[in-house]
Amino acid sequence: xxxxxxxxxxxxxxxxxxxxxxxxxxxxxxxxxxxxxxxxxxxxxxxxxxxxxxxxxxxxxxxxxxxxxxxxxxxxxxxxxxxxxxxxxxxxxxxxxxxxxxxxxxxxxxxxxxxxxxxxxxxxxxxxxxxxxxxxxxxxxxxxxxxxxxxxxxxxxxxxxxxxxxxxxxxxxxxxx
Length: 177
What we know:
Distance between the termini: 22 Å
Strand content: 35-45%
Radius of gyration: 17 Å
CATH class: Mainly Beta
Helix content: under 10%
Largest sheet: 5 strands, antiparallel
Number of strands: 13
Structural class: mainly beta
CATH architecture: Sandwich
């Protein structure tokens, strides 16, 4: 189906509306044409691996993450630290694209700066909170080897489970690669 004005499904989410000072509507306009593009499918990547999620108090860990070259990273999902909170655990984060030797931020950023504190789902009976992604200010294309280095510094002085989920649009199909 070919539309003259593509609409991203994220623009239908009530917490993603355009407002003064917010950039979500701008990134949604950049992502909207990809929603109807048959060459991309949504996929999530997580760092660290499931067995490495537990980080000791004031600990540091570095993880490698390989994303398919040609993919586009659109946002990060940080799960809440507890079923009754929509904030992630306290840690600092730095992501480096090893192919480009490019760090995403000038210095490691606190987890609350890359979390989305707007819950999209709440189940009181199951103590579950869902969240939309924290959209990047522009889609980030994966080039070269597709290797990212994810560094985490625990800052709460307590052992905690840390999970960083990358929302990605990945190319697939013979005609698209």
